[in-house]
Amino acid sequence: MSKLLQYADNQRTLYSRITESVDDAKGAVGPRYDSLRREAVNYAEYMISQYRIRKRQFAQRDDRFVSNLRLLDFGCGVGRVMEACREIGVKHVDGCDISREMIEHAKASDYLQGSQFFLSSGFDAGAAPENHYDIAYSFLCLHHIPMRQTRIAILEALCKSLKPGGMIFAELRVFPGATASRIPVNHAHWTENRPARDTNSAADVWVTRDSLGELVEDFRLFFDDIGVQEFDLKQDLYEYKADEIYQLGYNELFVMASKGAELRDNMQAPT
Ligand SMILES: C[S@@+](CC[C@H](N)C(=O)[O-])C[C@H]1O[C@@H](n2cnc3c(N)ncnc32)[C@H](O)[C@@H]1O
Known about the structure:
Elements: H1 3-17, H2 22-29, H3 33-54, H4 63-67, E1 70-74, H5 80-87, E2 92-97, H6 100-107, E3 117-119, E4 133-138, H7 148-161, E5 162-174, E6 188-189, E7 205-206, H8 212-220, E8 224-231, E9 251-258, H9 263-267
Parallel strand pairs: 1-2, 1-4, 2-3, 4-5, 6-7
Antiparallel strand pairs: 5-9, 8-9
Bound molecules: S-adenosylmethionine.
S-adenosylmethionine binds at residues 11, 15, 29, 75-77, 80-81, 97-99, 102, 120, 122, 139-141, 144-145, 150.
């Protein structure tokens, strides 16, 4: 079996094992799900504000800008961020996930009755329409994918799903205290292709400062106007804890980029 299929198989099996009830599925998203769900509203607003800036719409307070957006959530899980997007006024948000069980839980959400869901093979966006979405985003998912080839295939699929000028917005984790050659056993550095048998630790792929260039290059394969934003979690990033799986502190990392360069044109003064 190819590593791409092997990785997808591992991931699918893992999620079907741990998502029987909706509470199990929420537990698989992360500890303290209710608080993660509440803060998703702020993250959704931050993401949409970044899209506003790219479209040079920041001077407007036009709710239709938000309600008319078409969003695709990759690795949607039980629909935590999709629900948050609906809560802040987005009418159209679809989800895609490798796990049938996760999708079934998300489909049952009162917030998501108008949404469509697509089953991913693990390295595509399933039957999600092409050239359709304004924003394709992914939270708490890509850092669980230690296969570079899989992540690249996903970036390509998400690029196809976007309209020209659409934005990708992806959450990862960066470990400033580590380097690509010194990360914990059974975790991948950015350019590695590990199928990950025992996946789902804090991060199965460790983004390090010295791999940021390669990370940007992977996004540059399909996108332009690339932005990288670190959210400082105020941890000690350098204290090494040998007996802990996390081992070193991390910050949240957001990568945003557009399907086609626009930012420079948008900055030009009208003639
Ligand atoms: C930790 S949960 C996060 C769910 C959601 N994004 C959130 O933030 O609440 C990770 C989700 O990513 C999905 N996933 C993991 N690898 C995937 C892949 N290669 N393709 C599609 N979905 C994947 C899992 O099935 C799971 O639902």
